[in-house]
Design a protein that fits this description.
By secondary structure, the protein is mostly helical. It is built from 17 helices and no strands. The protein has one domain: Growth Hormone, Chain: A (Up-down Bundle), CATH 1.20.1250.20. Helix 2 runs antiparallel to helix 8 and helix 4 runs parallel beside helix 6. The longest helix has 32 residues, at 15-46.
Length: 418
Amino acid sequence: MTQTADVPPSLLRDRAFMLFLLARTVAVAGSAITSVAMPLLVFQVTSSALVTSLVTAVQVVPYLLFGLIAGAMADRLPRRSLMIGCQAVSAAALLSVPVASWLGELTAPHAVAVSAVVATSFVWFDAGSFGALPALVGRDRVVPANSMVWIVTTLVGLGGPVVGGVLVATVGAAQALSFDAASYVVAGALLALIGRSFDAREPRTDPQGSLRSGIREGLEFVWRQPVVRSLTLLGVGNSITGGAVTALLVVFAVRDLGLSEEGSGIGFLVAVVAAGAFLAALALPRVAARVPVGWITLATLTANPIALLLTAAAPTLLWATAPLLLWSFTNVLTIINGITARQLVTPLDLQARVNTTARMVAWGGTPLGALLGGVLAETIGTRSAYAVMSSAVLLSALLAWRSPLRHRTFGTTEAQPS
């Protein structure tokens, strides 16, 4: 898979892409605040690792329930209207939390339900976004555009958790969510300003085909395309481990690293995870220009469990920072390497279906990892839970070393744009 390491100047002068990027950046800034506020809110109310882990679990379950349908429909519906509608639903759901808190009616089930609504809305937004980006920038600029989106949004994500921690400490966890609600409103308005079509598609032989046939086309492509199939199936172990780490991060910070529930220190820990994602996005174009797509996944899956074991053994926040940064880097690089490979090999009219199907499978382990991690944390402690849950991505690494990914030529032909 050949890629350029630099962002083409044309992207920086492309108004449609820059508005798209700004919309994603604003939404991510708000979500970064929620990534601190929502788990803390639930933990403050319940003091339960298992219930807190539900926040992470419900963020992925909607993908399993609606991913196939959303992908098929996003290839048929006007993507702009779909994406803006999703932003509006998320804003309304999040705003209900500070309102309920002000009325004295806020409960943990309410907060978890809001997480589920926002996550469900994201499934449909994500399905539309997968096809919108290639339509806006053209297939020849997908790799640098993807990298730029990840770099800018994860860079914003570095400061977002810290801001979230400060907001939690000053206005409270529930009121901090109102800032995320506002970010969705702004992001939707920016998407509405884009003058270019989100819906450029290649000709279909069966434009009026049934929804069921559309879903089947996406499933068949994922299974038959060797690059997509391999990276998707191996991503399951990565998502199981990732679900446990994310779900228990607040619990690990409070119970094992001795950080305060007030939020500022936890915000820094979440920012470390965001920093790993930022470095992964920054590295992808340069690494992918020199290293085969399969070797990237081999390296990240191998290093990931080692980094998590070192994190679990860290006695203090200082000692946990570097291994947690490495864990996040390898976790995210595995994910975005797979996303970019899929977007390069997938026809435009299949983008939403293939990407939501692949993400549904690869992310399918996240709720399982979150719930298993929560149960283990309640019984054997968070450190031991992290150690046990590292076995999932370790298994993916072992399978990867026995797969075609180890061959240098794997993906070279298949990953060229069609």
